[in-house]
Amino acid sequence: TVSISLRRKSFGIWGEGDLNFLCSLVNDTKLENLGISENNFGGVFPECVSNFSSAFLYLAIEQNKIGGGIPEGIGNLINLEVFVAYQNQLSGPIPFVIGRLQKLKVFYSQSNFLSGTIPHSIGNLTMLIGLALDANNLQGIIPSSLVNCKNLLGLSISYNYLSGSIPPEVLGLPSLSIILDLSSNHLTGELPREVENLKNLAELHVSQNRLSGLLPKTLGSCVSLGELYLDCNQFEGSIPPSLSSLKGLVALDVSDNNLSGGVPEFLVSFRSLKYLNLSFNDFEGEIPSEGVFTNASATFVEGNGKLCGGIPELHLSRCNPKTSNKRLKIVIVVVISGVTLVLSVLFILWLRKKKEQQPTTCEENSLLQLSYQSIVRATDRFSTRNLVGSGSFGSVYKGVIEENGLVIAVKVLNLLNRGASRSFLAECEALKNIRHRNLVKILTAILGFDYQGNDFKALIYEFMANGSLENWLHPSVGMNELETTRNLSFYQRVNVAIDVAHALEYLHHHCETSIIHCDLKPRNILLDEEMVGHISDFGLAKIISPNGLTYSANQSSSLGLRGTFGYAPPEYGMGSELSTKGDVYSYGVLL
């Protein structure tokens, strides 16, 4: 047998002829496995692959820029077991002949541009274990023929345009144990009671559809669930008591529905629960103050006007004890009537005060709206397609908030790096009270847990559409032709230099306490749509206290004392005291 693996070899130039070499393998009758994933291959998926030997078993082409359609002739590869093609540019329909691949076990083609319907013939793939078609342009209904895929462990078809109801037959597959993800489609109707068959399922996602009706009591039979996402639908009624059996839940999201009634007490006993989102429903009554409800970073209850109590960080009103004393009610009415004039005056004063405080309040409320899950959605689960850049402390992703279309930059800290947490604290400390048109605006910070219960820290910024000054001055390998040939005019360069100077002047002389950036370089200067320069990345910043001493949440990091070689003053490397003059030196190098 012959196996060829070219994974991560930087082959290809995103060119049309990149895959022509595959046709030379047609006559190799011993070829069984071919992997060309994570390269720079472009062009069209060649039809000649359909003529590979009948012994061919494994094809992996993921994470390239391969376009065109899946060849009709792929049905000739009757012994194919694995087809992995996610994160490419494949388009057109899924061939009906896919049903001929009756030995196929894995079919992953998510994050492409596939269109049309999911063919009914896919039900012929009785040995299929995993099917992932997320983030395509698929339409039509979910084929009920999937019921024939008795070995299916995971089915993920989110972020498409699928419509109709959820086939009860699909929920009748007890083999599903890893994930069933139908989210972000146009599905309607109720969640079928047949969901009770999914006793071994770990993750169920049906969020962002148009599902309605009551939550089925049979959902409580899914005792292996760790993640349950029902948000952004039109479910109504109360959370059924049967869900008390889902004691292994790590994440539960029922936000943005029409659910009502009280918040179930049994959620307090869910010791594994790290994320609970009940927001924007019609829940009422008192919120518990135990279990997950003690963590305001993990519990979201906003948008439920009838809720009260809970820990102070949830910002709910106090619960008032009920009374049936008729006389007391009469007294209250009389008292209220007697002080109408006083209340009117107080109301006017309150309005005036509110008007003065409104900008800050609005900003604080907006910070509370972003959760870990909303960031996951905004970045398409931190897809490499949205990766803007990475460094020693973490990676930056482009994201789009679904609710309002806001484009953001998400800096996810790599907490395995010992300096990452210090960098996070330093940046929060530096940016919390500063505002300037030439500083990148921080929108919020997120501290909490991911779906596996691991610590998660991220900083959310406004997105700079034209990237870093570094990429304009020194294009890097992997950038497209347009990006590598663009140039900054002399006028633009002067304007960016002035922008940076204004930002430094503000940091050094116009903040309540002066701030030393400590890492000024082209990579940390970002350009917006109008080519206005913004200083970013305050992970090494130092704050000068009124007595002239420097301090920072990151001051224990030796890296923070040095900045970047070539841009930091030489004396920093010899232990000299930090000062604003160091930033001025870096600015001179930049010029």
UniProtKB/TrEMBL annotation:
ATP binds at residue 411. One of its GO terms (molecular function) is protein serine/threonine kinase activity. Keywords: ATP-binding, Kinase, Leucine-rich repeat, Membrane, Nucleotide-binding, Repeat, Serine/threonine-protein kinase, Transferase, Transmembrane, Transmembrane helix. The chain crosses the membrane at residues 330-351. GO terms for cellular component: membrane. InterPro entries: Kinase-like_dom_sf (IPR011009), Leu-rich_rpt (IPR001611), LRR_dom_sf (IPR032675), Plant_receptor-like_S/T_kinase (IPR051809), Prot_kinase_dom (IPR000719), Protein_kinase_ATP_BS (IPR017441), Ser-Thr/Tyr_kinase_cat_dom (IPR001245), Ser/Thr_kinase_AS (IPR008271). It is found in: Membrane. It comes from the Eukaryota. Residues 382-591 form the Protein kinase domain. The keyword Transmembrane applies. It is a single-pass membrane protein. This is Protein kinase domain-containing protein. It comes from Gossypium barbadense.
